[in-house]
Amino acid sequence: MRIFSLPDLGEGLTEAEIVAVLVREGDVIREDAPLLEVETDKAQVEIPSPMGGRVEKIHVAPGQTVKVGAPLVTFADAAAEPVAAAARGSAPPTSAAKAPKSAAPARTPVAAPSAPAALADGPVAATPATRRLARELGVDLKVVRGSGPGGRVLDEDVRAAASGPPIAPATVPASAEPAAPAGPAKPLGTVGLEAPSLPRFEQWGPVERAPLSHLRRTIALRMTLSATLVPHVTHFDRADITDLDALIARNLEAARAQGVTLTLTPFLLKAAALALLRHPTFNASLDPAAGEMVLKRYYNLGVAVATARGLIVPVLREIDRKPVLEIARELAALAQRVREGKATLDDLRGGTFTITNIGALGGTAALPIINYPEVAILGVARARQEAVVRQGQIVPRLMLPLTLTFDHRIADGADGARFATEIVQRLEAPERLLWEW
Amino acid sequence: MGDLVDEVEVAVLGGGPGGYSAAFRCAELGLETVVIDAAQRLGGACLFEGCIPSKALLHVASVLNEAGRAKEFGVDFGEPRISLDPLRKWKQERVVGKLARGLASVAKARGVEVIGGRGVFEDSSTLRVEAGETLRKVRFKHAIVATGSRPGGLPGLTQPSERIMDSTAALDLPDIPERLLVIGGGYIGLELGTVYATLGSRVTLVEMTNGLLPGVDRDLVQPLHRRVNTLFTAIHLETRVTALREVGSEIEADLEGRGGERFDRVLVAVGRRAQSDGLGLEATRVRLTEHGRFVRVDERCRTEDPRIYAVGDITGEPMLAHRAMRQGKVAAEALAGRPAAFDNVAIPAVVFTDPEIAWCGLGEAQARDQGLPVKVGKFQWAASGRAATLGRSDGLTKVMADASSGRVLGVGIVGPGAGELIAEAALAVETAALAEDVALTIHAHPTLSESLMEAAEHLLGA
User: Fold this and answer.
1) Please, is B338 exposed, middle or buried when counting C-beta atoms within 10 Å of its C-beta (0-12, 13-18, 19+)?
2) A83 CA: distance to closest CA in chain B (Å)
């Protein structure tokens, strides 16, 4: 009997969380076959088996945190010879793929015909359009769990895989092998912060004190909460809105005839909502107590409105389902209610993502703070005519600076870049915004 | 005299379906593209000496056949009189010529230049184009090799004689020989054998293996075998041709174990060979597959040479025009930086005989060999109303599905129109549809397409 314990992982790491167990008791595996996936403070790594043989006992379960030296797997005293070949190829040790891989049993040649290989090695069950989407989003379909009938991988599954940790499918297809569970959710640690007491400013000169308004206090509290609790990361991009600007100009009169003043913002809202549909993690909230991500299947976008009293963020509902003209109409009415102090509580809550457009006031970029508990905010600065090189020619184009600030706990820089790119692409093909909803 | 050098973004070598699909897609994506084709035309073997002319002749055969069968229901057209000149002219001008002109005009509209000549790689960025005495060089950023395949010969046997034809020569329809020997029981031998037999030749077919259409599901081959048995004079399985001699105006063939037999013409239809030789590929980093028959490509149709892509027959089996066309588009998109891949699950295959045979995806025998748990559903056309009205009840549709999920993995069809019916099956396999999806979809009555639904229902009930 040989026991394999958690090896020293280097970099001063003393413990690791078991993400997935890739073998089952009774499996016969060869040396170097992938055994476990563990996650440390630094990275998620796959631990290969240091020996070949039959797995007698597995001592750990996904979700468990184990110390270096703790027993992981006991091997039976099998023949010293490594047996057969493990069924699956090993992923690079620092594989970023977080999707749980199914624990395929190691197959010996003798067992092969009866083993329900099913389609493990065959084509992935997905339509050609879904497969193309996976390629566009850089998702390996083989590690995505399909939630469709017969285990078919749907667009939603691909998008979810592209923009974050895997989402447990609502229905587990009967045919699929049970994948290693992600383990129980656990609360995140909290960061305690208390402002130190202020110095006496009077010692340097005269001061005045004014009480904060209720709105100011609310803003202060929420911004402090967000800025201290949420690790912010910002992605910069620019959209060429020459065509969009022309489209708005062309339709200004027609829209006015319908009582709507057409501006850039409704198009921004539409573009963001459509992008959110494909990047659901940016339409989510992190539940630190449960250790879960809450993905909202509604797309209610907040628009930061500057009022005399301070910043207010009213919310427009179901932007994904409304045409731009309708969004423009609602936005105008909502902004008016807010400025007149007539907004209802319902006007102000239930948002899933926020856009703040400071373009009217100038500036080249802004790094807004996330409207907690949302996970992302799009900052829009003033569009300017710029000399842009297109096909070797310098041409004047109207460029709109954008910043996407998001919660690094939920998404990474690459995810943010993809999401921002999608918004930019949609702004650059404005006619599609008119008919897509 | 200095060489004439063209600089282009994409040079496509070969104007067949793979080549022109790639070129058109490249042009659509804004890439400056030229096609280098030995005959300076688009269409390739498919249009000029393969798919299209053979289907034109098979249509003629089918009309003759139907007219003959009309006696069954009391309509007698009399004995057909066949005039070869108008037939050849119709095939050449109204069918092939019309399509060729269509392709040429598409090329013109998309700004794709077709350069005539034999293209040979000088290195990984230059093609030398030889056309008679003139020499031209094309420097490219990317090349797509789509030189296709040519009919294979019988090693040591095929001596030059105009009476010994390959498929290209047979499609020219030089005459209707009284006695025709067809060597090879694959789809080409069967299709062209059918054409000549229907036009009046007495056809003898020899096949080396123990069945027609080697590798194809026996359930599908059986009805065809029964029919060609009556159409052909003789079918000799497990028989080799050991010698072919021209004797006067005849060809004497030695059939192993049967002695010598005399024929007026011989059709050699023993498969096709990829044309990877003589292209100068050794001057590039392109690598061939182990047996050196094909150019090695990945799923994006990239060869080992980062500048060079390859599509179509030259990249391997199945050598089918529609596979080449899809690959051509993949190669174009891949070199334009798009995330395209040839990841198709179902490549439909059709044998245009009477009855037609078509299949896609996994075959039953293949599933059994691989130990995959599959369920099989079958529907005999004897129970089809539409088949009865056509007087053709010899068809069969079968569906293979994954035993646990019910996902459709493969479909095989034999019967008139199978080539058209397979389209729905390919969609089902490609989109990972379940047998239940097929069974629950309404199929028009009375049509042959109901047979797929019926087979799926049978599978679910099984």
Assistant:
1) middle
2) 21
